[in-house]
Write a structure and sequence with these properties.
Organism: Rhinopomastus cyanomelas (Common scimitarbill)
Largest sheet: 8 strands, mixed
Structural class: alpha/beta
Family: Belongs to the adenosylhomocysteinase family.
CATH class of the largest domain: Alpha Beta
CATH topology of the largest domain: Rossmann fold
Biased composition (Basic residues): 16-25
Number of helices: 17
Distance between the termini: 32 Å
Biased composition (Low complexity): 26-45
Helix content: 25-40%
Region (Disordered): 1-65
CATH architecture of the largest domain: 3-Layer(aba) Sandwich
């Protein structure tokens, strides 16, 4: 049973193309956007440097070498990106102001594994302002912004991440975060569950000092519930993914804007009139469908849950099985958190030039491994865009090798990530400061009152004015005037 929850782990981190494959790439367009200063999705690499960051001796201006990033000299560019992100993350900046007096995370040693973007940097620096020490690795081999990682390393954060890591690099970076002499983490902030898995596998004794885990993704939460069910969860865990402020905002609104961004930057396609199938109508699927419908696409939905399926029908989408539309659609998007949703059989039946991509956290949804066979030819078109060509000349366009499209191929809206990051920070504060016995070795949801607090911190940005209940109204509804305004079972 112990093996069940991590059965897909090996599959999740396919290695980069070999050196031989890379020599055949176009000379003008590099394999990855490793040294780009402008954005996560630049198509060119300003450096011919092929040296692995692991082989470089780098120090920041204070003489520290406790980090591993692509190029520490990019720090100034990263700092500017972080400063832009701060303008759109009002709640985290508000937490910093309040932390000038008390330090609710004083003594916290947080080891983190998330997407390393400008938004994450604002969160990390906020945790630092709240009193925590942090060590950080990336939860995805393509989503790191190299210049941001450099800026964090320059300001003293031990960060181990760069865009385009191999599978071996990925686990090495996580290990460097955890296994360091004289530093024992007492909190985990995870996105996808890989950091938690690594500590369980390699350093189970560490859990004796760890107060709790905060997990952000569907995939990671699923793993935690499996551990809990098997009786192997030895510390309390906070399921941030299913808190209202994560699921109803980040998953929905973030994907509604970033799906179009990721597709445009990689393929320059026009959406009007295109036939699209979106697999899964959870919050991520709902966001993707709404954006594509608004652009004039014809959208089909596949779904296993009758409730989500009925929502798709009521929203005006045609509910189908993937087999029914696979020959005619122009774009296939997975949003399920499941595995093998798009199989080799589906890929074989797709029409020429069909675009295939994934919006779920894990790269298990599309069976990319089945495409790495001798009869199929892979051509790198630009960073994160591959043509996979069949013997008869048919080709599909595969984005980010089936990994998370928006963070691999574009960027995501900062404001909506402010909501998620604030939720993560409050979950860490709650678990770290909880008296012994409040939380048992189980998975918990954030209290509704805390969700409402996170939302209220973001309202001033819109010059929004909340109505207050009168005493009579509060009594009539049976509510406290200050909330929570919805019961815990409200969805």
């Amino acid at each position: 049973r112990a093996q069940i929850q991590f059965a897909d782990q090996k599959q999740e981190f396919n290695k980069r193309p070999t050196k031989i494959g890379r020599r055949s790439l176009s000379r003008s367009i590099s394999q990855s956007s490793t040294d780009s200063y402008s954005s996560a999705a630049s198509y060119t690499d300003s450096s011919e440097d092929e040296t692995s960051p692991r082989d470089k001796q780098q120090k920041n201006s204070k003489g520290s070498s406790d980090f591993c990033v692509k190029n520490i000299k990019q720090a100034e560019f990263g700092r500017r990106e972080i400063e832009i992100a701060e303008q759109e993350m009002p709640a985290l900046m508000a937490l910093r102001k309040r932390a000038q007096g008390e330090k609710p995370l004083a003594g916290a040693k947080i080891v983190g594994c998330t997407h390393i973007t400008a938004q994450t940097a604002v969160l990390m620096e906020t945790l630092g302002a709240l009193g925590a020490q942090c060590r950080w690795a990336a939860c995805n081999i393509y989503s790191t912004l190299n210049e941001v990682a450099a800026a964090l390393a320059e300001s003293g954060f031990p960060v181990f991440a760069w865009k385009g890591e191999s599978e071996d690099d990925f686990w090495w970076c996580i290990d460097r975060c955890v296994n360091v002499e004289g530093w024992q983490p007492n909190m985990i902030l995870d996105d996808g569950g890989d950091l938690t898995h690594w500590i369980y596998k390699k350093y189970p004794n560490m859990f004796k000092k760890i107060k709790g885990i905060v997990e952000e993704s569907v995939t990671g939460v699923h793993r935690l519930y499996q551990l809990s069910k098997a009786g192997k969860l030895c510390v309390p865990a906070m399921n941030v993914n299913d808190s209202v402020t994560k699921q109803k905002f980040d998953n929905l609104y973030c994907c509604r804007e970033s799906i179009l961004d990721g597709l445009k930057r990689t393929t320059d396609m026009m959406f009007g009139g295109k036939q699209v199938v979106v697999c899964g109508y959870g919050e991520v699927g709902k966001g993707c469908c709404a954006a594509l419908k608004a652009m004039g696409s014809i959208v089909y939905v596949t779904e296993i849950d009758p409730i989500c399926a009925l929502q798709a029908c009521m929203d005006g989408f045609r509910l189908v099985k993937l087999n029914e539309v696979i020959r005619q659609v122009d774009i296939v998007i997975t949003c399920t958190g499941n595995k093998n949703v798009v199989t080799r059989e589906h890929l074989d039946r797709m029409k020429n030039s069909c675009i295939v991509c994934n919006m779920g956290h894990s790269n298990t949804e599309i069976d990319v491994a089945s495409l790495r066979t001798p009869e199929l030819t892979w051509e790198r078109v630009r960073s994160q865009v591959d043509h996979v060509i069949w013997p008869d000349g048919k080709r599909i366009v595969l984005l980010a090798e089936g990994r998370l499209l928006n963070l691999s191929c574009s960027t995501v809206p900062t404001f909506v990530l402010s909501i998620t990051a604030t939720t993560q920070a409050l979950a860490l504060i709650e678990l770290y400061n909880a008296p012994e016995g409040r939380y048992k070795q189980d998975v918990y949801l954030l209290p509704k009152k805390m969700d409402e607090y996170v939302a209220s911190l973001h309202l001033p940005t819109f010059d929004a004015h909340l109505t207050e209940l009168t005493d009579e109204q509060a009594k009539y509804l049976g509510l406290n005037k200050n909330g929570p305004f919805k019961p815990n079972y409200y969805r």
